[in-house]
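Appendix B, Record 12. Input sequence as logged:
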Amino acid sequence: MNDEQYLEHCRSLLGEFAETLARRTKQLPQEHPLRELAAGFQALGDYPSDFYDQGPVLIARLFDTYPEFTPTFPRQLLWFFGANCLHYMADEELAEFQQLEDTRAATPP
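Logged structural output:
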């Protein structure tokens, strides 16, 4: 999988998560913080210029404020966004994703 394919795969995972979260929070009042967070994830799916800055902020907000939703968040996206998102991963997961990344990088395009 080349870099462009990997990016598209991660964008797809993000879009699916955003859609699911929006659907699960649809019955909440418009101003409810969780519904606003879902809208933030959906807007992130439009890939604004601050995609890489806002992604980790939204993820941290989800994990810190609504930990009950964290099992539904794709672990691959924690690795993809990196930085502080890596703190939400176990050491074993980090090692596994690093190995996958090394394999992906070693595979010729």
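The mean pLDDT is 90.
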